[in-house]
Each structure stands twice: as structure tokens, then as C-alpha cells.
Design brief:
single chain; mainly alpha; two-stranded antiparallel sheet; globular
Length: 327
Amino acid sequence: MNRQLIGYLAAAIVVALLPYMGVYPIFAMKVMCYALFACAFNLLLGYTGLLSFGHAAFLGGAAYAAGHAIKVWGFPTELGLIYGTAVAAMLGLVMGLLAIRRSGIYFAMITLALAQMVFFYFLQAPFTGGEDGLQRVPRGTLFGIIDLRDDLNLYYLVMGIFALGYFVIWRTVHSPFGQVLQALRENEPRALSLGYDVDRFKLLAFVLSAAIAGLAGATKMLVFVSATLSDATWQMSGLVILMTLIGGLGTLTGPIIGAFIVVLLENKVGDFGRFMARVTDNDWFLRLGESVTIVIGLIFILCVLAFRRGIVGEIQALMSRRRAKAS
């Protein structure tokens, strides 16, 4: 059996057992949602070479769309998730049509500007709840049978959604379409000279990335039964870039590691700071613990200086060097 397949099966078994190993299900579900979001972004930047500063629009847009459909329109939970994903894909199509005709920093700035327009729309639209957000969205049931108010039931649904999204990305990367995307990343003029419709491939990659990011946003809304403006801010777009770069740009598992590290820091840095403040009787640790962004920024600087390929990228490079020496 393929080693990679064995590794994925082992990882799936471990993740499935996490609730029975003392891991808080909400924490694990948050990691999976952000990991899927980071994997979707990595498909666009790591494999296509397009840096988007507006991916939070898809995360937040799908969360609002799915939450409104479930709470106000009475959609079944599974249909609400599909609807949120479809809204993100349509938003990605519109933004992609406007942005893909530019490249480099111009592409990034256009996506940022469009995402900010979407953010201000969410801020003022009546159905989003403004700064209060869309609260108390019912989780409902899955296929009318499985009660999703039970965190354990919801955990396995989120795990299944993550596995589906990851498989779509994995299959895309290892398909002829994925090979063309990587060719665009490496040498776009050469791909154009070979007769590929570069804009069409970029647009397809953008829409697919937006749809998967939307699936992550709709799922996150279901976990926290709310959709808020924080999901659509430019800071969220920056955070997903950070997750991808820390874990390893252009690797399949790197964004997952990066998402885990960032979520872990967001949840545990404050606890660590309070602990160190009690032990050392120094308020500096307390202030540091309250400044999660400073700690995350320091880790990002460390990764840029010491792990330029990201954690997974450096591990892969080290293994490649060892195999080269062995042969």
C-alpha cells in the first residue's frame, strides 16, 4: 500500500479519536475549519502563484449566507452549507473576473479592495446584524436524523467536511489541471506560448479556492452558531497567509500545521502568560499573554529567517537531501 495513503489513514484515525483523548471538540473543529481555509488559500498561492489579500470575503460571505439560510429561511443544515459554499463560489467568480487580468501586487491589491467592499456591505446590510453579527444560528440535524447540537456528532461532520475538501484539493493538485496551474506559477509566459488559456485556468483556480474557503466559513459558522464581521476582515486574510507560510507554501499538509499552530497560540498564549506571571511575579508575561498578535508576529519572523520554506517545506527539503546523499 502507498506510504502516503497509510499516513493519511493513520492521521484520520488519530483525528477521529481526539475527543476520546481529552481534546476539546470545539478546539479541534476550529483547527479543522481554519486548516481547510488555509488549504484553499494554498491552492491559489502555493500551486497557482496568485497572492490574494481578499480570501476572508469568501470565509465571511459563506458564513453569513449559510447562517441566514438556516436561521431565517429555514433551510436544512446540509442545504445551508451547500448554499453558503455556492455563494462563496459566485463571489469568487465575480472577484476573479475583475482581478485575474492583473498579476503580482496589482492582483493582490484588487482582491484586497474588493474584499473591503464586501466587508463594508456586511457591516451595513440588515441581514448580517451589523457589528453584533448573526447570532444563535440553530445547528439543526443532519439528514433529519443526527442531532448536531451534540458536539460529538458535529465533530464527525466537520471531520468529514474537512476530509472532503482536502481530497478535492489533493485530487486537483495531482490532476492535469493541477499540473497546468503549477506551470503557470513557474513560468506563465511559457504556458501562454504553449497555447493554454491562462486567464481561464486562473479563474477556475480562483473560483475553486473561493468555494472551498466558503465551505470552511459555513462550517465554522455551524460550529460557533454565529457569523461575525471578524471572519470578513482584512486581518483574517492576513492570518490565512501567515498560516500557509508558517506551515509550508506549496505543500499539502503545511497549511494544516500552520493553522494548528496559529489556533493553538490564539487559545493558549494567554493561559501561558498568566501562568508565567504567577510563577515569576512579573506582569510583563501577563501583558505578553494578552498580546497574541505580537507572539504570532515573532513566530512569523522566526519562520521567515530560519524556515523559509515553512515547517513542512524544510522537513521535505531535509529528507530530499538525505536521500540524495544516500544514493
